[in-house]
What we know:
67% of the residues lie in helices and 0% in strands. By secondary structure, it is an all-alpha fold. It has a domain at 49-100. Helix 1 runs antiparallel to helix 2.
Amino acid sequence: MPRHHEKRTNKAAKVLYQPVGVVSSVVAGLIAGQVFQQVWKRVLPGDHDDPPNALESEYTWKEVMVGALIQGAIFAVVRAAVSRGGARAFERWTGEWPGN
């Protein structure tokens, strides 16, 4: 079983990290949106370059659900990677872990 090491953190570090967290969330959303667009083009080749919207009648129920599943997974992974990278960079700069 892997060992988890707790990082040092304090209230000031959490407060100082908030702007970094907001910027990293925006960046993650932009990256994830671009990644999803490229993945979707390969998942459903043809006339539909844009991902399905639940209220668009030209998509089947299955296409809408698969699109939402893929989009959710991509957004979660990209957000976690960007957040973790931002926290590690913050720790290198300040010596404090911004979470926990």
